[in-house]
Every structure is written in C-alpha cells, then in structure tokens.
Amino acid sequence: MKEYNFSEIEVKWQKHWADTNYGIATDNSDKPKFYSLVEFPYPSGSGLHVGHCMGYGASDAYCRMKRMQGFNVMFPIGWDAFGLPTENYAIKNKIKPQIITTQAIDTFRTQMKALGYSFDWSREVNTTDPDYYKWTQWIFSQFYKHSYQDGKLIEVADNDTTTPRMAYQAEMTVNWCPSCKIVLANEEVVNGACERCGTSAEKRNQKQWMLRITAYAERLIDDLANIDYLDTIKTQQTNWIGKSVGANIKFKIKDNSSIINVFTTRADTLFGCTYVVLAPENPLINELKSQIKNISELEDYVLATKNKSDLERAETVKEKTGVKLEGVKAINPINNQEVEVYVADYVLASYGTGAVMAVPAHDDRDFAFAKKYNIEIRQVITNSNKNINVNDNAYTDYGILINSGEFDGLTSEDAKTKITEKLKSINAGELTKNFKMRDWIFSRQHYWGEPIPIIHCDKCGGVPVPEDQLPVTLPDIENYEPTTTGESPLAKIDSWVNVECPICGGKAKRETDTMPNWAGSSWYFLRYTDPKNPSIIANMENLKYWTPIDLYNGGPEHITLHLLYSRFWHKFLFDLNAVPTTEPYQKRILHGIILGPDGQKMSKSKGNVINPDEMVKKFGADTLRAYIMFIGPYDQESAWNMAGIQGVFRFLNRVWNNAQKVSSTKDTNDVLVKLNQTIKAVTEDLENYHMNTVISKLMELNNLLEKQENISENTFKLFLQILYPACPHLSSELWESFDSKKSIENTTWPKADENFLMNDEIEIAIQINGKTRQIVKVNPQSSQEEVETMVKNDPKIQELIKNAQIRKTIYVSGRILNFVI
Ligand code: ANZ
Ligand code: ZN
Questions:
Q1: In this structure, which residue's CA is closest to atom 27 in ligand 1?
Q2: Is the CB of 362 inside a 6 Å radius of any atom of ligand 1?
C-alpha cells in the first residue's frame, strides 16, 4: 500500500488550484456573494507565524465550505507594509525599506501558498505601493477639504482658515527621546522610556496633523446597534468612545463679566457645590489675572503641573493639590450663593469644559480635596436604606434630594432633569454630552509611511496636492534616520521639499510628516473589490456588489483602534458618497492566540516560537491546518502541544489507510447514523467557527470507519467532502482516486440525510414476525415513518426481508417495530 506522501500531494494540489484559478472571485454573479475578510498581515522579516495561521486557516476552511455551498466567495489578502520595524531594519542594515518589504512579502506569499490558503491572489493589495497609497492620500485630501456640520460634510475652500476641517494641524504634546533625538510614536515608548535606547522619554510640543474623529463619535456608538459584533467588541468600542451625558452650568464671577462653564453628570447635586475648580491650563485664568491676589503662587503651581501626564493627574488615590484664587468668587446660579474658586490639576483641560463644580459630599476626588483644604462638605443626597455620613466618606450613589430648596424629595434622576430645565429657563445651563475619545493624532516624523499630501505656501496656507499630482511618492533616499530637530527624514531632501505652490505658483514646501501605520488599513477592504482601478478608490458597482463585508475575522489586538478608525473612514466615505454602506463589516469575530509549548506568549527571547515552515516540512500543511483548528476553543488562548500535532498527523494517516477499505459494500446503520450526524455537526460548527469540534467530530467518524471491514464508496466520499475544508490536499487526492472527472472542490456540499439523524437516546427492537432481529438506536421524537425508513436501509434487515412482502407493520412507539411477512 502506498504511503501518505503529503509533500508530493500538497505540491500537486497547490498547482492544480493555481492552474484552475481556484479562489479567484468574479465580480457580479448569479450566485449569492460572500465577502470573507481576514486582517492582512504586517510582512515582518521573520515570516508567517502560527498565530497568523489560526485566523487564515479557519477562514480558509470556512470559505472552502461556502464555495461548495454555492456562494461566490471573495477571500482576499494583502500587505499592511508601512511601519517602524522595517524602517529600523533599513537604518541598521542600510537596505532600502522597499527592498526589505518586497522580500518579506515574497516570503509570506510563498508560505501562505504552501499552507493551501485559497486567497484570491488577483486582488492582492500592498499599502506601500504608490498605486495604493495614492488613494490613501486622496482620502486624506478629502478630510482636509471637508468640514462636518449638522451631520453633513461641506466643502471648505482652499483659503478658508476658520471653518473647522476634518484634517487640521494642532500643537500637541509628543514623546521625545533626548538621546536618539527623535519623536517617538506611542508604541515606541515602553514604560515611559525609548524602546531603542532605554532613555526616559520627555514631553514636547510639536505641530501635528489631526483627524477629527470626534465629529463621528455619536454615530460610531449608535450604529453598533445594527451590526453583528461580539458583545465584548461592542463594549470595547463604546467604552473607548466614552459618551457621557450631563449638563454645562454657568457660574458667574463676582465683580467680573467672565463666566466659568462647568461640565457635570450630576446636576442633581448642584446645591451641594461648595467650590469650583479650573484646570491649570484653563484660559480663563488669564482673564481673571487682574483680580487674583496670589498670582505668583498660582503661576508656580501651573508650571509644576506641566510635566505630569493626564493619567497621573486623574489617579483617584493620588494626593490632591491645588491653589485657591484669592480675590475671586463664583456664584452658584441655582441659589446665588458665593463659592470659592480653585485651580487644581485633578481637573483636566482636555475634558468637558476644563472646569468642574465640586461637590465634596458626593464625589470622591472633591471629598479628598475638601478635606485637605478644609472646605465645607454639604450633603444634598440621602438614602433611607443607608447609613450616610459625608464627613467620613463621599456618598456617590443616587438617592433623594435634601437641602435643595424646591427640589427636595425628588429622586436624583428626576432632579437632574428638573434642575437642568430650571437652569435653562434662567439661561444658566443646558443639557450636553461629552466624549472621552480625542481627535486622532495623524502624523509621524518617520520615513516609511504615506507622505501627507499637503503643500505649505506662505501666501496661500496649506494647499492640498492637486488630485492629478497624486500620489506624492516617497523619494529614494540613502539615510532614513530621523532628524535631530524632530522633523521627518524627508525634511532633509531639499529637492523633494521645495516645490511650487499649486495655487499661486510661488515658492512653497511639501509637508514632510507621514501618516501613521493605521492609515493604509483603514480602507484596504474597499480596494479589494476593485484593486486596479486607476481613477477611483473602487468602482461603485463593485462596492455595491461586495460590501458590506459579511464576516471579518481577526485577532484580539485590533478590536479597539483599527476597528474604530476603519469604521470612521468608512462613514466619512459614505458621507462623501464614495461607498454605499454606513458600516464596513456586518459581522466581526475574534480568533484566539496560540501560546508556546510552555504556556507563555511566543517570543524569540523565550525561545518558544513554533515555526510553521518546520511543521509543514515534518507533518504537511493539512496536519498543521487541522491541528491549529483542533488546538482549542477558537476564540481563546491555547498552548502549542507537540503530542497534539502528532496525534492529528496519525489521524490523517488513518484516513489515508481507510481509503483502502472502500468497496461496493453496504454500510451498517450505525455507520450511516454517525456519518449523517457528522455531516450535520461539521456544517454547523464550521458555520459558527467552532473549529476544534469540527476536527474532533471528524476523528470520531474516522474511528468508527476504521472499525469496519469495508466502507462504502458513497460514505467515504461524503467523509472526504466534510474533511476537505480543513485538509483540502489529502481530501482532493483521495477523492480523485474515486472520481477522476470532477475535483472535490467542484462538488456540492453534502446535506445530512434526516432519516439518519436520530440520536442514540433510545433503542428499538426490530422484529420480524415477532422475533427480535436487530436493535437500532433512535431519537425519542422520531415518527414511525422515520424509524421504518431507517430500518429498511439496515443491511441485516434487508437481508432477512429480501423480496418478501411486508403484510403488516406493528409499531409500539419507542420500543418495538415488528414486520409481519
Ligand atoms: C459635579 C459632580 C458631583 C460630579 C458628583 C460627579 C459627582 P464622566 O462620567 O467621566 O463624564 N469632571 C468634569 N469635567 C472634568 C475634567 N475636565 N476633569 C476632571 N473631572 C471632570 O464624569 C463627569 C464628572 O467628572 C463631572 O460630574 C465632574 O464632576 C467631573 F457628586 O460634577 B461632576
Ligand atoms: Zn501659494
């Protein structure tokens, strides 16, 4: 008997799929479409790792089933290839990033093909290809050219400097490494230090490009209701955006025309406000300067807070600090009471209005501050079920109002509405909402990214590069080191930087910042629908046919930012009428993580990395694919286990050997029941990405087949069809030995025969003329008809009945079936 020669088989079928264009999707078709998206990889120098295989292998199995079910499946792949590791490697080894990237992509492609992934190779995209990033730049220009107002985009003229654009420049704090003398991206700061040299990172202010994602904050939350994401993913998105509904309340300043506007989510506690706090950066401080008596003390304090991060300042446990503004008093609009005004760094400038009304009786931070500075703590909320003493602790829950004039006795919920209404009527407050999410810092001072397509002219301001001059390509340079001024290395190339202004023709300079890694991945799924289009991101007809993406499968590290950013771009493009749907992904699922054999995260330094190439060499691609599906529950962490992959390898060898037992036999009822149960279960499990049970059920069926002396061709072929998604090479090879005309991928996905789907809960005695001849297991709900059909297919009973006429059938439900012949 021939051995299971996986390498020979795998090369043969990979060639067959390439020759027959298997996996190449056609735009528009009578078949229902299915757009299956997996996160495209960053082509790192170390090649594909088994973590990639978890997502790609499962989605490949899924797509192979879907195609057999009659779907026109698109399963594309591409390369998210801009980024720092390549740039750093280029600097160190003096090789162009373009060359490094091409080599890495070639490796990835070869590895993916060797694993039998049926990607649509005709749609490959590469974010570093100028034909691709031309459109990333085009989208950026659209952000620059538009403003979002009342839920709509409006165009902004080139010379308009006041209308808020969707892309704008602002002075931002960045991380700076004083030893490498470069701006560090957030991901390059590890525990507060530069990732490369370990020097403590410093804060610096630098002009950065920003994208106004906050304009879409509300829609990014609301539209989650219409899509099918795992609940954990929806919660992550919602929490990141951080919507908070409350009121802005105006406190007038005594003897001054200035007003302190505070944001509160607890308008019900307004009568308990005993002081007001301004963030140290609040510009109001300047307006009040002439009135403040302790100005130098205040200035010292403001200076001292400069080096603290927002995170540190927001810590609840940190001791609170602040300075009272001597000579300034604010007036509580609800009762006209005068309160003190403080500056304290626990109030952040970047949230709400940068000012709060402090209610020490009902807020922990205000409580700590009031205790330290000896400020009155006035209780205004009570709860008859609880023992409250606001001198020991703040009571922060809702309750019933006291000490609140006409609002006494109301619940907190009602009081919030009533107090806000009252404030509105005296023009001292209104309902408002705030978001934790900030605008997206969209520039990097690095070489290996998309150049931001803006030209700066002294006369005309920031001018978008005209569309017919896109893409702005990265110049060929020799030295990718960032500059010591914090500018991008592009700033050193005079011939590239100095250009004519597209408007006035005068001397102008190119923007030298590049886009962050997130840019190219924010719209790649659109390009797959029409990857070569030279004149538009993708043609509307193709987009209408393919989008939204039916299923997006990816890892846990991208469920916050990447999803948010790409949903934001998609909504913006929808508003531009460039895409037909408001959301990109109809459904999003999550794959787990494969840990090293030691149960730790795989990493070079721990020496626990499993190389997929080695596994393919040793056991074959089919074994690796099936093992990774089998490794554990799909969405969880599972540790690699060498005994596990060996077990799967033995399983496939036994499948190979079972093929020798195929003959023109009739299968027993047991086999047919198990076969049909397995067809049903595997179909459902694949549909739900329960990949580990797909494999275990195939193993169980295989065990039963192994016990048979002979296996019918029909049964074995059905087994091969359901094994095919996980192990397409082996299944194709064995299938060919039974049917050399039609390859397995062109067959129709099998359907379980309902007659055999009865579970083995109850046993029925099959009698002929009152004598028990066979026992069959049936589902307790089966009808007499179902039991009869099943029994008549049983070889033993068929043998006994032969051609005899059944004169009478007696059925005792759930116990006996008697044929009188
Ligand atoms: C009065 C009050 C009374 C508050 C009370 C809370 C409890 P979220 O839910 O996170 O939106 N706040 C507002 N702006 C702030 C800023 N820039 N820096 C620090 N704190 C700020 O929280 C809103 C609450 O956080 C607001 O409601 C305000 O304190 C505070 F018993 O106002 B509250
Ligand atoms: Zn100009």
A1: 264
A2: yes
